[in-house]
Structure formats: structure tokens, C-alpha cells
Amino acid sequence: MAFSNKLSLLVIFSCACLLSLAYAGNFYQDFDITWGDGRGKIVNNGQLLTLSLDKTSGSGFQSKHEYLFGKIDMQLKLVPGNSAGTVTAYYLSSQGATHDEIDFEFLGNLTGEPYTLHTNVFTQGKGNREMQFKLWFDPTKDFHTYSILWNPRHVIFMVDNVPIRDYKNLEAKGISFPKNQPMRIYSSLWNADDWATQGGLIKTDWSKAPFTAAYRNFNANACVWSSGSAKCPPMQTAVAGDNWFNQELDSTSQARMRWVQRNYMIYNYCTDGKRFPQGLPPECHMV
């Protein structure tokens, strides 16, 4: 499929759908706590959500809506202190064996040691596209904004509006891209001490439980999927604030992303020849 750089773009989906713009609300309106037996809480009149983990259970939530393309922002403050063994996951996902998924995962660590930010992209049920980073700040001291910009040409991961990764649409070269399956937003806090910290060498210290992560200032400038409605009309993106649909990284943003990857990236599947003895994934040769 060819894409225009103009501010308007015709989008036609084969399924019946209704697209509308979704904006900031509160957590009561936008999310459901889906598991954790009371360990997930919405407080402050819907302006703050917290997830907790103890030895019995973690907790999680999901969005009420599904989205097909959008700019999704969430501010998180991660588990402080000794968070080793814990994982805070924040991601978009569809359902089924051939699901699409766009992942942020925050892997905890010992007190004073940095978190690992793990990213991945699944298309048609296939992942194995991990890139990992350290952060240039302490993500437990204050809230920071973690964003996914997902449009027909790019999946861009951002931290405090700094791009750290750009997964491009290379379908014309035979590489799949998530563009047909609507996805919900999910987040969870759970125990993964069999692998999360130093490959599972460091276990969760349950004497420090409960572990708590906090969320605020959710914003979805996005297309909401509502099944059973008419096919989508053309989407006009000339409206101010709606240009995420055609957005690409300009030269300044590309330079900032290169700075992050040069200084803070600690793993890139595209350089892991031992993992792929038959050859690196094809997109690694095209980026």
C-alpha cells in the first residue's frame, strides 16, 4: 500500500467499523481493573490509578475501548526501592494466535540499580523484535510520560516525548506491520523473578511487598474501534492536533533517537547474530 505525505489520507478498512477521536478522560471512564482482587485502585476522582503486587497476586487493568491507530500517552511512576523480580507492563494488544502487540515492559532491579525498559513489536502473532534500554533518569522518583505513536507507517516509542525506537512499515518488502487489528491498552504489575532481573538470578524480596506502580494523565488522541457500524469514511488529518496520523520523525527527532540508542540501548535484536544463526530478521537490513 502506498502512502502520501500530504495532510489527508484515505483509509478504508475491509471490516465494518466506526472511527472517532478519543481524548483525555479519567480512569473510571477509560479503563477497567481486570484482575488483582482489590490490588488495583482508581483514586483521586479518577485522576490516579495504582497497581500493587504482593506474594499472593499482582494486578492489572485494560482500556474500555479498542483502538486502530493513535497517539497513546500515559504517565507512570514505577515501583521504588528494591523492585527486583517485578515487571510493570504497559502495552497495546489484539487477541488470538495471530495477534498484534506493541510493548513497553519495565524490568525491576535492586535498590540503586537502573530499571531495564524492554520494547517489542508483535505482528500476526510473531514477536522476537526486542530492543532494551536503560533510562537517563530515575523512573521511580516522579512521573514520566511513555508514549506509543501508531499510524499506518510507523510505530514510534517515546519517553518524555523523546523517540527511542521507530518500527517502520516495510510491507512493500514483505515484512508484516500491525495495521488491521484493533488493540486495547493493557497494563499489569506482576512477579517474573524467574527471568526479569539479571536473567532470574535476583529474586523478588517479598519482605518489601506490597510493590506499587502509579499511573496518571492518560491521553488517547486515537481512533476508536466500534464493531458493527458502517465502514470508515476517509480520515482528514488537516485538523490541528490530529497530525499524528501522518507523523514521521523529522531530522531533529531522528538525531535525538540516535542519541538515545547510542548511549542507552543495551540490547538490539538486529545485532544479535548468535540468536539468529540463520540470519538476522530481514527488517534489520533495511532500517
From TrEMBL:
Signal peptide as annotated in the record: 1-24
Location in or out of the cell: Secreted, Cell wall; Secreted, Extracellular space, Apoplast
PANTHER family: XYLOGLUCAN ENDOTRANSGLUCOSYLASE/HYDROLASE PROTEIN 8-RELATED
Coiled-coil zones: none
InterPro entries with a match to the protein in the record: Beta-glucanase-like, Beta-glucanase/XTH, ConA-like_dom_sf, GH16_AS, XET_C, XTH
Residues covered by the GH16 domain: 21-215
Active site annotation, chain numbering: E101 (nucleophile), E105 (proton donor)
Catalytic activity, EC: 2.4.1.207
PTM entry text: Contains at least one intrachain disulfide bond essential for its enzymatic activity.
Gene Ontology terms, MF aspect: hydrolase activity, hydrolyzing O-glycosyl compounds; xyloglucan:xyloglucosyl transferase activity
Glycan-carrying positions: N109
Enzyme class: transferase
Broad class of the protein's primary localization: secreted
Protein purpose: Catalyzes xyloglucan endohydrolysis (XEH) and/or endotransglycosylation (XET). Cleaves and religates xyloglucan polymers, an essential constituent of the primary cell wall, and thereby participates in cell wall construction of growing tissues.
UniProt record, GO biological process: cell wall biogenesis; cell wall organization; xyloglucan metabolic process
UniProt family annotation: Belongs to the glycosyl hydrolase 16 family.
Protein name: Xyloglucan endotransglucosylase/hydrolase
